């Protein structure tokens, strides 16, 4: 964008100025020495190839520069593997490639010299019939011809590079746009929508490429507050389903109805404010932890602290205001509001760097979980949300999810770790974009030959999973 804004116009103007000047010179010399027109035609044809050479020169510089980068970063590995000779030869070859098009300037010099030569030759040939002033005028311009052409071609090359940026922007402009973010008065859901997490998925077909469905007509009915584990082989369509809930991909057919409202009919803002996704790699913003949990400052500090506590991002419960929570840690003489070693927050003003660079992936996932806790959405989707935390933390998070915090929320949890979802209400097994199995974990485990049973067997912890599923089933029957 910077090169479009600053360089493109300049190089365009200079290119036109230089080409016009070169054309002016050709006209002047041709007027004085008419046979020059033949030389001009030959030279212009030859200049077509010099433009191509300029493009080759630009292309050849990237491999050489990237080789320098590799050399600087990997110098110890190169020495360790004795690859010095290889890299020296590679550098020589790449700089040869870069220098080959540089013959362009030599050829241009030759072209310029040819122009001056022919001009001088013609003048001398007709020396008696020429006015001295006119001869000098033509010769001076003939000598400048080379410079004009050199700059015109240089600007032409720069211009081609800058135009790559313009071309990319124009491609982006042609991309399909998302649906409208705002609901219209006719399709705006009621203010407290969704009151329940009742969900109906009816014959849902989703495709990334037209007519190539990834989800093939999924249909299911989920009751308010149900916890659904979603499993399946890689590429089965689990993440696609989660993207469809937020309409990152629109349904090609069928619909998703949340608490009686077809989600495809409302504005994206209303939908995405009310559905929370905790993705595999959560996005965090540069700012404070408070800003990351509650960007629109809609909730009091107590709720934000509570969410941090439940997501295991503060050490002690204590009192839940910022000032008192800091005082809990006063004895530790913490000079930062984020304890670096443990990733525990001691102030809501703790800094989060761009994209959460100062947190581990597991900690970023916990922050995303805290975000969901603050919003208490009725529909929560966790896409491998705890894949990067240790078993113990995962276990505690699962207890939080099953606890009163999410009692009112319908939860979809995509998990490769089967123990994460083994005591959920139901397990959805996706296979090649279709519902292969959908039942309680205990029922699926008891069904000989079920995909879920075979996944549990292959996990190496079948006994544990079978026991946990049975205990969960018994607990539900008892309650
Ligand atoms: N952006 C995309 N464009 C085209 N096809 C895609 C795109 N993203 C995913 N797919 C295809 O959709 C299918 C389902 O992918 P999806 O990511 O939903 O699988 P998944 O079950 O979540 O896999 P994993 O467990 O590895 O995350 C795959 O066949 C994949 O190739």
Tags for this entry?
479 residues; elongated; 14 strands; single chain; six-stranded mixed sheet; alpha/beta; 17 helices; binds adenosine-5'-triphosphate
Radius of gyration: 35 Å
**CATH superfamily name of the largest domain?**
P-loop containing nucleotide triphosphate hydrolases
What level of helicity do the residues show? 40-55%
Shape: elongated
Main sheet: which strands, in order across?
A: 6-11-12-3-13-14
Runs with pLDDT <50, length 5+? 317-341
Cα end-to-end separation:
61 Å
Q: What is the CATH fold-level name of the largest domain?
A: Rossmann fold
Bound molecules: adenosine-5'-triphosphate
Number of domains: 3
Structural class: alpha/beta
> Averaging pLDDT over every residue, what do you get?
82
Count helical runs: 17
Walk me through what this model shows:
This protein is an alpha/beta fold and 479 residues long. The chain has three domains: 172 residues, no CATH class; 217 residues, P-loop containing nucleotide triphosphate hydrolases (Rossmann fold, 3-Layer(aba) Sandwich); 72 residues, no CATH class. It is 53% helix and 15% strand. Strand 8 and strand 9 form a beta hairpin. Bound molecules: adenosine-5'-triphosphate.
């Amino acid at each position: 964008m910077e090169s479009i804004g600053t360089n493109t116009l300049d190089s365009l103007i200079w290119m036109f100025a230089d080409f016009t000047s070169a054309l002016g010179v050709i006209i002047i010399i041709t007027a004085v020495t008419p046979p020059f027109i033949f030389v001009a035609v030959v030279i212009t044809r030859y200049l077509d190839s010099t433009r191509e050479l300029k493009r080759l020169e630009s292309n050849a510089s990237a491999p050489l520069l990237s080789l320098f980068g590799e050399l600087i970063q990997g110098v110890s590995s190169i020495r360790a593997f004795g690859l010095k000779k290889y890299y020296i030869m590679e550098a020589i070859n790449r700089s040869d490639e870069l220098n080959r098009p540089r013959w362009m300037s030599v050829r241009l010099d030759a072209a310029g010299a040819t122009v001056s030569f022919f001009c001088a030759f013609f003048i001398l040939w007709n020396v008696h019939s020429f006015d001295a002033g006119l001869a000098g005028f033509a010769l001076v311009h003939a000598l400048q011809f080379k410079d004009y052409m050199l700059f015109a071609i240089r600007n032409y090359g720069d211009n081609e590079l800058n135009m790559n940026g313009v071309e990319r922007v124009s491609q982006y402009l042609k991309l399909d746009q998302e649906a409208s973010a705002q609901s219209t008065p006719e399709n705006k859901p009621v203010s407290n929508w969704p009151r329940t997490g009742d969900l109906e998925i009816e014959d849902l077909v989703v495709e990334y490429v037209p007519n190539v469905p990834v989800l093939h007509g999924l249909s299911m009915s989920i009751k308010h507050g149900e916890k659904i584990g979603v499993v399946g082989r890689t590429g089965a369509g689990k993440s696609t389903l989660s993207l469809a809930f937020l309409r990152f991909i629109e349904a090609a057919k069928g619909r998703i109805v949340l608490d009686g409202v077809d989600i495809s009919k409302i504005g994206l803002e209303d939908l995405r404010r009310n559905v929370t996704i905790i993705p595999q790699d959560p996005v965090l913003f540069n700012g404070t932890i408070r800003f990351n949990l509650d960007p629109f400052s809609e909730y009091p500090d107590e709720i934000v602290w509570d969410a941090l506590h439940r997501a295991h991002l503060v050490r002690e419960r204590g009192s839940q205001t910022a000032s008192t929570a800091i005082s809990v840690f006063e004895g530790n003489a913490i000079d930062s509001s984020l304890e670096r070693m443990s990733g525990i927050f001691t102030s809501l003003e703790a800094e989060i760097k761009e994209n959460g660079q100062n947190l581990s992936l597991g900690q970023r996932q916990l922050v995303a979980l805290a975000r969901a806790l603050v919003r208490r959405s009725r529909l929560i989707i966790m896409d491998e949300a705890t894949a990067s935390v240790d078993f113990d933390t995962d276990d505690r998070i699962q207890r939080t999810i099953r606890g009163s915090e999410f009692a009112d929320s319908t939860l979809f949890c995509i998990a490769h770790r089967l123990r994460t979802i083994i005591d959920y209400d139901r397990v959805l097994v996706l296979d090649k974009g279709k519902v292969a199995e959908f039942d309680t974990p205990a029922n699926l485990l008891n069904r000989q030959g079920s995909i879920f049973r075979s996944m549990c067997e292959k996990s190496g912890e079948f006994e544990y999973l079978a026991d946990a599923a049975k205990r969960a089933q018994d607990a539900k029957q008892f309650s």
